[in-house]
Amino acid sequence: MQHRRFCEAEGREIPYEEVGRGWELPDGQLVPLTDQDLERLPLATRHVVEVLGFVPGQDIDPILYSRPYYVGPASPPAERPYALLVEALARTGQVGVCKVAVRTRERIALLRPRHGMLILQTLLWQDELRDPGDLAPCAPVTEGELELAEVLMRECTGVEVDQLRDEYRHALEQLVAAKVSGGQLAAPPGPGPAVDLMAALQESVRAARAHQGG
Asked: Residue 92 is part of a domain; what is its CATH number?
């Protein structure tokens, strides 16, 4: 397989040496930007993580989370300050808010502890979030439905996320095995009929209590 760059306006394939970056101005003018231009950007975060301050971890909305990276001390003299920061963050429940350059772009990020190490959790900028204004509003619920849902949530506690299985990968492995052996994969069950919400909640509560021996 090959990745081809095709220009519909000119009706031709564009060689790699003709591909570049640019910034479009409001009037439509395109300002070309080279790798050398980007290297000269006056960013303090190009080579260091700039810590701006510390906040409680729960104050950061998880919707902003982008990618996590493990980070470690760059040299032996940095090991003790690194360990001190890991322990202080773990003890206080705080996270460090910082800026860092990732692939020439400046990102906002968090420094948070995990298993005795630091995680650099990059975040989305606010203007990268989708505006939820076009989503449908929540449907109204009754007090009885809400109380029953709360009971169900109390009954269904103790989920160990690290023990959950990737069902898609498991099904894919079964499909590959069936193709290799010449067998057939069982058809997945179809969607069930629409059910009454209260009846479904009540049945779920009964099943949860029975599973827990209640």
From this structure: 2.40.290.10
